[in-house]
Design a protein that fits this description.
31% of the residues lie in helices and 22% in strands. The protein has 652 residues and is of the alpha+beta class. The strands form 6 sheets. Strands 11, 12, 13, 14, 15, 16 and 17 form a 7-stranded antiparallel sheet that branches. Strands 1-2-3-4-8-10 form a 6-stranded mixed sheet. Strands 23-24-25-26-28-27 form a 6-stranded antiparallel sheet. The protein is elongated.
């Protein structure tokens, strides 16, 4: 195609993309009505700034084409496209045809506003001919190699009304100029931050961009809320309220398990308010993480991730905040750093990752007075018909069935969310392809049962998931505390030692000298100083002295464990055998715990104040740790881990 018919609005920055464009260009016609535009943006009526790789006007119509320079192989797994690179690394992708279809419809609408209606179809082109396309037939429609794409473009129109002649081709070119298909740097700046050209995630009323500071080596995530062109005042207000609500929640509550807001800028972008978040560019969504790393996690590691989420939500609920729409896409997964977790490589850091909960735009807060709503609850949407305007489509299978009901109980919504995320983590699969599919299963009397998908799972995992995701709210667990109690039973079962058959011990003569009578070694007492105490589970021994019984909870600065002091002799009735270890969750928390110890050290002993057992903070592994009194029921704490009846009693 000649230069006068091919317009590169912006030259590609990437050689592989340029090669793909040239491979297509050299096969296109040089005569009317053929025209093409490469690498441009347009602003849709919704306010989304849409990136287009290639737009071609052919005799059979107008075609919007997404170019993908993927290598290796591509397949579909549970509705997600999974690319396996030649190195063996697997990367999950959403079906790009869905976004391309949306862009095509938006561009067609803009052309219609210019009095130049045209049918715009979408297509995806794999520019690497060696890519092994293993997609099922249902996903093959609209997907082409370069040769297949050119063959499709040369086909005559399916309907005569879609035919493009020379005159109409010229009018479309003029209409595109009026629409404004050119880059605008203003659309890619928020304050001192420069946005990447393509958003890496988006919803109906927002788009997420990776951005970097113009002068500092700092990467952030910026969520831009989008006020639709020509929308009425109520729709625009709804978008602005969603942005303010997310900012208000995250300003009011800071926790290591919740995304960290840096700044809220109500006028930060030309199309709407902007929220600036701390961000690790390596972050994966929970469903992406399960696809890439799930096969390398044992069940206890998966339960540790469930516990992270549940303890975060419990802390959120204690502040009278409720997320309401927990879904896989709302959980960001980051590998733990080498220093923090004692790992030898970043890859192993993914096996004990850190989770943060995102997407708080439809959260709600209860007021402290007699059930009276606070401002944030009055402004929060109460039904899916209003909240759904701000939720991404792929959150749908994870949403509780009663979200559409007026005044749905927010605690029950979050418990349900924890249940479906547990199902995802234990099975490696989403609960369903859509909420409609899940509802049909509920109506047929089926619940979510991980054992129906994965063999060999504990029945307690089934009970946990079913109790959290019961269709009737009255049958569901009443609180996150109840969820954590059942989770503890699951952990108990997973950590119970498997007895090994022992050969019969040889008889020892009573007359044998004392040195021949060997005491059995005491297991579990060897120090495990190398292990990060944050990741301790029941049965671990920290610093050779503290035997972990169970985790008590996680706050913004520390995680608490109930431990038994192995230095206390069983028959010593003057010493307390149990204590609480408060473990700092970050380097910043080290100083906070040190100040707490200093403050407690200056106070006179008082029965109303929990005392330090060790006057100075300890260093266990990479963590600062306080050793404090345990003021719970020592009879309950003293029950042996794995003792008969202990699990059933706690579960009850």
């Amino acid at each position: 195609m000649r230069d006068d018919r091919w317009t590169s609005v912006t030259e590609s920055e990437f050689p592989h993309e340029q090669r793909g464009l040239e491979a297509i260009r050299e096969r296109l016609g040089d005569n009317d009505p053929w025209r093409a535009w490469a690498n441009f943006t347009f602003t849709a009526a919704s306010g989304h700034v849409r990136e287009v790789d290639l737009l071609i006007v052919a005799p059979g119509g107008v075609h919007l084409i997404e170019l993908k320079d993927w290598h290796g192989s591509i397949e579909s797994r549970n509705g997600t496209w999974l690319q396996t690179q030649p190195s063996g690394r697997q990367i999950s992708h959403g079906n790009p045809l869905h976004l391309a279809n949306k862009k095509a419809k938006e561009l067609a609408w803009l052309l219609k506003q210019q009095n130049e209606p045209a049918w715009v179809s979408e297509a995806v082109c794999f520019t690497d001919d060696s890519l092994r396309n293993r997609l099922p037939a249902r996903d093959q429609h609209g997907v082409h190699s370069v040769d297949q794409l050119v063959q499709m473009l040369e086909e005559p129109p399916r309907e005569e009304r879609r035919r493009i002649d020379a005159t109409k081709s010229g009018r479309i070119a003029t209409a595109l100029e009026h629409i404004g298909i050119a880059r605008s740097d203003a659309a890619y700046k928020v304050g001192p931050y420069l946005l990447h050209r393509k958003s890496f995630d988006s919803g109906p009323t927002w788009a997420d961009y990776l951005a970097r500071h113009s002068e500092l080596p700092e990467a952030v995530r910026i969520r831009v809320y989008l006020r639709e062109r020509g929308s009425d005042s109520e729709q625009r207000s709804s978008v602005e309220r969603a942005a303010r609500r997310e900012a208000a929640v995250l300003r009011r509550f800071r926790h290591p398990g919740v995304v960290q807001l840096k700044q809220y800028d109500p006028t930060g972008h030309s199309v709407g308010p902007a929220l600036i978040f701390e961000y690790d560019p390596r972050a994966l969504r929970l469903d992406e993480y399960v696809i890439q790393y799930g096969a390398r996690l044992d069940m206890l590691s998966r339960m540790a991730l469930v516990r992270q989420l549940a303890e975060t939500i419990r802390s959120v609920h204690r502040r009278r905040l409720y997320h309401r729409t927990l879904a896989a896409r709302a959980v960001h997964v980051m590998p733990r750093g080498r220093a923090a977790a004692g790992h030898d490589s970043e890859d192993s850091g993914w096996l004990t990752p850190h989770l943060q909960i995102s997407d708080w735009q439809v959260a709600v807060q209860r007021g402290p007075q007699q059930g009276g709503p606070s401002d944030s609850e009055r402004f929060a949407p109460t039904t899916l018909s209003r909240a759904g305007a701000h939720l991404a489509e792929d959150a749908d299978p994870y949403l509780a069935p009663e979200l559409t009901a007026p005044k749905a109980a927010p605690v029950a919504l979050d418990v349900y969310g924890l249940g479906v995320l547990t199902y995802l983590l234990t099975t490696g699969r989403p609960p369903a392809a859509s909420q409609a599919e899940l509802m049909s299963r509920y109506e047929a009397g089926e619940g979510l049962r991980p054992t129906a998908v994965v063999d060999g799972l504990s029945e307690y995992i089934d009970e946990l998931v079913q109790a959290a995701t019961a269709y009737r709210v009255s049958d569901r667990l009443a609180s996150v505390d109840d969820f954590l109690e059942m989770l503890e039973v699951v952990e108990d079962v997973l950590t119970e030692p498997v007895p090994e058959p022992q050969p019969p011990a040889p008889a020892v003569s009573e007359a044998a000298p004392p040195q021949e009578r060997k005491e059995a070694p005491q297991e579990g007492r060897e120090g495990t100083d190398e292990k990060d105490p944050l990741e301790a589970v029941a049965g671990d021994v920290l610093a050779g002295r503290w035997e972990v019984r169970r985790r008590l909870g996680t706050g913004s600065t520390s995680r608490a464990f109930l431990v038994r002091d192995l230095s206390v002799e069983p028959d010593d009735r003057t010493a307390k055998p149990f204590a609480v270890l408060k473990v700092a969750v970050s380097e910043r928390s080290n100083a906070i715990l040190a100040r707490e110890a200093e403050t407690l050290g200056r106070l006179r002993p008082d029965s109303r104040i929990i005392q330090l057992i060790e006057p100075q903070p300890l260093k266990i592994g990479p963590r600062t740790v306080l050793v404090m009194e345990y003021v719970g029921d020592e009879r309950e704490a003293g029950s042996q881990h794995g003792a008969p009846g202990a699990s059933s009693t706690r579960r009850k």
